[in-house]
Design brief:
Distance between the termini: 37 Å
CATH architecture of the largest domain: 3-Layer(aba) Sandwich
CATH topology of the largest domain: Rossmann fold
CATH class of the largest domain: Alpha Beta
Strand content: 15-25%
Structural class: alpha/beta
Mean pLDDT: 95
CATH superfamily of the largest domain: Translation initiation factor eif-2b, domain 2
Radius of gyration: 20 Å
Number of domains: 2
Shape: globular
Oligomer: single chain
Low-confidence stretches: none
């Protein structure tokens, strides 16, 4: 299994370029904030927990670079860079969480050098915490998976989406670690194929049985009773619903119709009780992600494309949310879901 998806090394941020998998495994070095923002927006680094770590490391990187410039502009420069990182992707709440957690500590430290050292230390701690959190999520979720079951998952909520281990895939890894025989079906996840490129790559590398299907095949396999449960991650959990990769809502509706458990695995940092589904700005991505495929045109010129990155699944369709502190079940009267 991957040791780390994103890391700090010699004053720079290293990460796996996930846009190249599974063809090539390459690492990217971000030496400045604009390069990190590009990595976030291009999905070289993606997944809610990994974006939280990226936000934390981003503030540390901003501090290191600001320390080499005009010291009297240190705090204003770091604030500016933090705001730019925070807004790189608007829907995933973990990115802002990681930025804000480190930035608030920096702004409370009077000496720029000490503030920079604190930023690096805190960002490293957040990365370490993420792995421990994912393993705890896995330990609470593993008992939900019967031995011999088949699990459907969407997008990638594995080690590539976190510092390590994963949320939804972390539950599967933990169940396998307990000796259970688990089969996984990954939806390809159009238009960027995170389920086909990333989830299938991760689990195949781990030796966990994995089959990839087209997104629209899932309902038919549910009808045929070939899927026992669904587990997905989350990019934001509001007081009334879950935001995750586009297509998640469709799977939740189909699972409910076929009376199949639908689980969401996510850490506390993904919860946003102050927002409702209707309040959240959902990222719309560029046309060519849909209109082009492998360099070939798939949609005629002049035909509009809608390309939402996420959708919202009402909590009424969620069987349970798996967190690092246990399961949250209906009717969802839980402190993490209350403003």
């Amino acid at each position: 299994m991957l040791k780390r998806t994103i890391w700090w090394e010699d004053g720079r941020i290293g990460l796996i370029d996930q846009t190249l998998l599974p063809e090539r495994y390459e690492q990217v070095v971000c030496s400045d904030v604009p390069r990190l923002i590009r990595a976030i927006q291009r999905l070289e680094v993606r997944g809610a927990p990994a974006l939280g770590v990226a936000g934390a490391y981003g503030v540390a990187l901003a501090c290191c670079n600001a320390l080499e410039g005009q010291v009297d502009l240190f705090y204003s420069t770091v604030l500016r860079d933090g705001a730019l990182i925070r807004s790189a992707r608007p829907t995933a709440v973990n990115l802002a969480w990681g930025v804000d957690r480190v930035l608030s500590a920096v702004m409370e430290t009077a000496d720029p050098k000490a503030a920079t050292e604190l930023a690096v230390s805190l960002a490293e701690s957040i990365a370490d915490e993420d792995e421990m959190t994912c393993r705890r999520i896995g330990s609470y979720g593993a008992p939900l998976l019967p031995d011999g079951c088949t699990v459907l998952t969407h997008c990638n909520a594995g080690a590539l989406a976190c510092a390590s281990w994963g949320t939804a895939l972390g539950v599967i890894r933990s169940a396998v670690l307990e000796g259970k025989h688990i089969r996984v079906i990954s939806c390809e996840t159009r238009p960027l194929l995170q389920g086909a490129r990333l989830t299938a790559w991760e689990l195949h590398e781990d030796g966990i049985p994995i089959t990839t299907i087209i997104d629209s095949e899932a309902a038919y396999l549910m009808q045929k009773r070939e899927i026992d449960c669904v587990i997905v991650g989350a990019d934001r959990i509001c007081c009334d619903g879950v935001f995750n990769k586009i297509g998640t809502y469709m799977h939740a509706v189909c699972a409910a119709h076929h009376q199949i458990p639908f689980y969401v695995a996510a850490p506390k940092s993904t919860f946003d009780p102050y927002s409702r589904m209707a309040d959240v700005v959902v990222e719309e991505r560029e046309r060519d992600e849909v209109a082009m495929f492998s360099g070939r045109k798939t949609v005629p010129d002049g035909v509009p494309v809608r390309n939402y990155a996420f959708d919202a699944t009402p909590l009424s369709l969620v069987t349970a949310i798996i967190t690092e502190e246990g399961l949250i079940r209906p009717p969802y009267h839980h402190p993490w879901l209350m403003p």
